[in-house]
Amino acid sequence: MLYGALEAGGTKMICAVGNESGQILDQVSIKTSTPEETMPEVIRYFRARLDAEAEDDRISALGVACFGPVDVRKHAKTYGNILYTPKIPWRNYPMVKTLKEALNDIPVGFDTDVNGSLLGEVTWGCAKGLTDAVYFTIGTGIGMGAMSGGNLVHGMLHPEAGHIAMSVVPGDSYAGHCPSHGACFEGMASGPAIQARWGKPAKELADNPEVWELEAKYIAQAMTAVTYMLSPQKIILGGGVMEQSQLFPLVRKYVLEYINNYIDTKELRNISSYITPAALNGNQGIMGALKLAEMAAAE
Ligand code: ADP
Ligand code: ZN
Description:
The protein is built from ten helices and ten strands. It starts with a strand and ends with a helix. Strand 7 (142-148) and strand 8 form a beta hairpin. It is α/β, with parallel strands linked by helices. 36% of the residues lie in helices and 20% in strands. It binds adenosine-5'-diphosphate and zinc ion (ZN). The site of zinc ion has 7 residues, from helix 4.
């Protein structure tokens, strides 16, 4: 069975065709500009796979893992829409409706980009078989996908764990860049926050240990909070900032320090597999979208 998968990001749209084993058979990347420019190309890609001559070559459902905020409430009027995004041309854009209308009402699975990445890792990657796990992306923004008891968490809309409050680390005079909260997790620890605090892009600060010490303290505060609140069996950290792999041992160390033995589990005793990078080499998002398609087809 073939499925379509769309990882809709703020800079690019990855469109792919794959199968139920998570194999990506074909993939293209389309620049995200405005819906008027970008979506016809996306639709053309999947349309061709819907109309394939041989039945075996046709996709039977589409999965979409989308940048947010998005409306993932199945029964809401605005289900499948992008909501109040800073990317103004995409505000209130009806993603699912547009795709379904253009693609013969094909089943469409839809979730946040971070839930998509988490689903990829839970299905085929480092969290395979787990029922409780979280995925954070730490990049331009910070977002969290969560699975609890085997279900992707939506709640009243979807979690926004990138905006939990931080205790400012003594000596850090940076005020935080979140327009809504100042010194929240995203305001203090996203890529743009690192750049604003230290005056250089995060990538160019690789050799400054003080940058990563401070960064790890903020990330560890958030990971400690999520450990307390959701009790995940695994925390996966992705996004551009986590390319600095020296962060992993630091984050693990501070999480253990902050928890201070309050929780005693085999997962925390084995902290290096509790807090880990993604295992699917950057394909976790598109593979998660593939799984969303399979789930939509089964519904
Ligand atoms: P996005 O969040 O826009 O989808 P990324 O996850 O790549 O994309 O995040 C981009 C942010 O991550 C930028 O702020 C950039 O400074 C930072 N970043 C990208 N690559 C690296 C790197 N190798 N080391 C540190 N920071 C990086
Ligand atoms: Zn915020």
